[in-house]
Design brief:
Elements lengths: L3 H22 L10 H33 L17 H28 L22 E3 L11 E9 L2 E6 L4 E3 L2 E4 L3 E8 L4 E5 L4 E5 L5 E5 L5 E7 L11 E7 L1 H11 L2 H4 L1
Parallel strand pairs: 1-9, 2-6, 5-11
Antiparallel strand pairs: 2-3, 3-4, 6-9, 7-8, 7-10, 10-11
Bound molecules: copper (II) ion (CU).
Length: 267
């Protein structure tokens, strides 16, 4: 006859095994279209697995308890009162502490790898002055790759639209066009209330705050058209505040840019 703790270890191992299998084989996220996406998805997978272990474990425990501790025929009252269980209290303090500490440190590491901890004011061509304060954002990743160009774009957010200004071409577009596999830097400002620019396929999101410019750096890796969504409740038509980002091959991007370029016409 096998002992109780043997079964318990077996069940816990099965729950952890199943959770890992689901976490690594079932993808709930949209396509990965920027260099940030695979980094972010590592963290998501880990959080998803931790959530699954807790969800499956607790559900099984509740179902087990429903049968095991069911009121017996003729039973009156709740049974003997329990008071304190030091071993249990130590376990349920230590395990969550380790999990939370791990998730905290791991999130920091992911944010750092995405460029979130790098200096924001660094070599940004759209700065009005070197003293202009950038409030928040994601900086360039120092990945030692050389990019043929840096594309700088200014984003204005207002109730209820995004506008994309291309300073080098002196034109404004309602769609964000960017070349694939190049570093893009966008500087964002709001004309009225707080908005947020969110591109799910890139796994990036940043608040846009009136009077406080913010910056996002990213490198798209997949040609395609993806949604840009305002992710900050900004008024009655917030739900309709959407735009598109179009990631193109360099030559297609150049064609589009040259068609819209106003600085050449004026020259
Ligand atoms: Cu908005």
């Amino acid at each position: 006859m096998l002992s109780k703790s043997y079964y318990l270890i077996l069940i816990i191992s099965a729950i952890i095994g199943i959770s890992f299998w689901i976490g690594f084989n079932i993808n709930l996220l949209p396509t990965e279209a920027s260099i940030n996406a695979p980094i972010y998805d590592e963290l998501f997978k880990i959080l998803f697995i931790i959530g699954l272990i807790l969800f499956i474990g607790m559900t099984l425990l509740v179902i087990y308890s429903l049968f095991k501790f069911r009121k017996k025929v003729g039973q009156i009252g709740d049974g003997i009162a329990l008071e304190g269980n030091l071993r249990l209290e130590i376990i349920w303090t230590i395990i969550p502490s380790i999990i939370i500490l791990f998730v905290g440190l791991y999130s920091y590491n992911i944010y750092d790898r995405m460029g979130g901890m790098n200096e924001l004011n660094h070599n940004h061509e759209l700065m009005n002055s070197s003293s202009e304060k950038i409030w928040a954002g994601i900086s360039k990743v120092s990945d030692n790759k050389s990019y043929a160009r840096n594309t700088n774009i200014e984003v204005s957010a207002m109730q209820f639209a995004f506008l994309f200004n291309y300073p080098e071409g002196e034109f404004i577009s309602g769609e964000l066009h960017v070349p694939v596999d190049q570093q893009i830097s966008i500087k964002m400002e709001s004309k009225d209330v707080i908005h947020a620019l969110w591109i799910p396929e890139f796994r990036i999101k940043q608040d846009i705050i009136p009077g406080q410019p913010t910056i996002l750096n990213f490198t798209p890796t997949k040609v395609g058209k993806y949604p840009i969504i305002c992710a900050e409740l900004c008024g009655p038509y917030h739900g309709g505040m959407r735009a598109s980002i179009i990631v193109e091959e360099s030559s297609d991007y150049d064609n589009w840019f040259n068609q819209n370029n106003k600085s050449e016409v004026n020259a």
